[in-house]
From TrEMBL:
InterPro entries, sorted: CdaR-like_regulators (IPR051448), PucR-like_N (IPR058663), PucR_C-HTH_dom (IPR025736), PucR_C-HTH_sf (IPR042070)
Stored Pfam families: HTH_30, PucR-like_N
Residues forming coiled coils: none
Gene3D superfamilies: PucR C-terminal helix-turn-helix domain
Superkingdom as given in the UniProt entry: Bacteria
Annotated ranges, domain PucR-like N-terminal: 14-179
Stated name of the protein: Helix-turn-helix domain-containing protein
Residue ranges constituting the PucR C-terminal helix-turn-helix domain according to the UniProt record: 338-396
Amino acid sequence: MLTRAARTGAPDPWAALPSELAPILRPEMSSLATQILTEIQLRIPEYARPMDQKYVHAIRRGVEEALGQFVDQIADPTAPQERCAEVHRALGKAEMHEGRSLDSLQAAYRLGARLAWRRTARIGERARIAPRTMLLLGEAIYAHIDELAARSVEGFAEAQARAAGTRARRRRRLLELLLTDPQPPRRILAEAAEAAHWTLPRTLVVAALERVDGQEQRSNPLSRREALLDLESGHPHLLVPCPDDDADDEPPWEQQLAGWRVALGPRVELHRAPHALRWARKLLELSHAGLVPERPVLRCEDHLSHLLLLSDENLTRQVVHTRLAPLGGLKPKQQVRLADTLLAWLQTRGGAPEVAHRLRVHPQTVRYRLHQLEDLFGDALTDPQARFELEIALRAAGRLLSYGALVPEPAGTGRSST
């Protein structure tokens, strides 16, 4: 395996050191390791507290491997380094799992380097090692420590990435469970939430998303609110827990989700999350069809009647065809005029003047149209259930397509049954 100097192209202190130094230094390494470990625990606050014995052993092994590898490289600059490097990667990983930064471990490396140099200097004085050789020895000590510190940084970064990846995968799985219809039992949700380090809320908001520009969104723009996101699937969506203490604390959707069109479901309890997502996705569909405005942020609560009437388009069309069949024998313009008049009459529950005022036509025109409607619809105009379904059909017809396109043609001109 190449030495560090050969890999980086830097001058190689190891090659210039006489291999005869190794047997002079090796006998001192065991006591030096004990001294370094003791000083680390005395001088670095994070390591001064009582520590887990397994972790103490890991640090001791790291010190011993560092010193052993140092002497081995003096004896043979091409000596394998991977075992020592892996030990120090593991120390970096352990720091991350302990919840610490690398500051304490880096301080430990610096302290170890100073102590190693002091001990080596005393050994060199006793053995009357040439000053130039001592300078090279000091350079080698600090080069070795730099290498090991770099390995610990690698381990720390690897552990961070793995933890983030594991957490992301668990949260993605939790999001899938929460939005599965029907939801799994509460016990399973609780276990998945605990594994993902996420607290199950009492209420939440679900949103369906649609990208409106080409920018990639890799981070979680609502991470502060513990949002769960899926931005990579064919139908991106998110779930945001609602704080129990502030019902009005709403994210700035347009700012946080710039580059996306957002359809927000209503605030619902946890078990209704799948329904809220279905409504939000339907609202996006309605906006594509031009039935609701295409705004950056759409709210289901602003379009409940649309969602109710158009949630099952085939069924809605059937209601329209069935209830408005008496209009089928008329020309399209006549269908529209009579449908508008009938809807205004059902909504006002008044006479010709009230309907005329709403439609901005002459009352006599309304009376004429009402007579036509009585001939076409007959008893349906006095039956409460039929009147209710007629109003639904008329509202839906106006929102889906033109009346003429919805009413079957020909449909006959006889009176409809109630």
